[in-house]
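Hello, quick one for you while I still have it in my head. A protein chain has come my way and I'm curious about its shape. I'm sending you its amino acid sequence along with the backbone structure tokens. I'd be grateful if you could look everything over and explain what you see. Here's the protein in full, and shout if anything looks odd to you:
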Amino acid sequence: MKLLFLTTLLVASVFSISCVQARGQSAKRVILPNIKLLRCMTSDCFQLLQDEPPRPGDIYPEHIDVAFLDRWCPFGLTARYNKAVSFEDLKSALEKRYGKGTVKNWTDAPLVIWDVEPGHLFIQLDVTDKRMAQNQHVPEGTKSIHYDDMSDKICPVR
């Protein structure tokens, strides 16, 4: 009887620990760049990341590039996440915000594209392979999210 009680207590403890860990894992959240920064032509667009209060365990990009080139406003963003960040976590965050993406098989590395505004605005999630790592000077396995505005009308060339 005592052994049955101890076994039940042990199983209940392991179950409660598993539930707490599962709750803690679901609290992890990927913080994406603020897509409103693209095409913004005023000083009101200062927020680089999405507008959500920070929580413990949030996953932030390590580096964000904003592309202007010959334009008056940002037309591209690239957010780089540590290679330890899961591709699936990034993909899930993007799918939650923009719907299901299209998987492309142009390279051996995983690649998903979201056509947010067909012909104008798209998002690409990829993993840096060995060749890309050498060209971009980032560690192999780095995950990148590219936001690109292909429209010349909204953010014209100077």
Q: What stands out?
A: The first helix runs from residue 2 to 26. Strands lie at 63-67, 76-81, 102-103, 111-117, 121-127, 143-149.
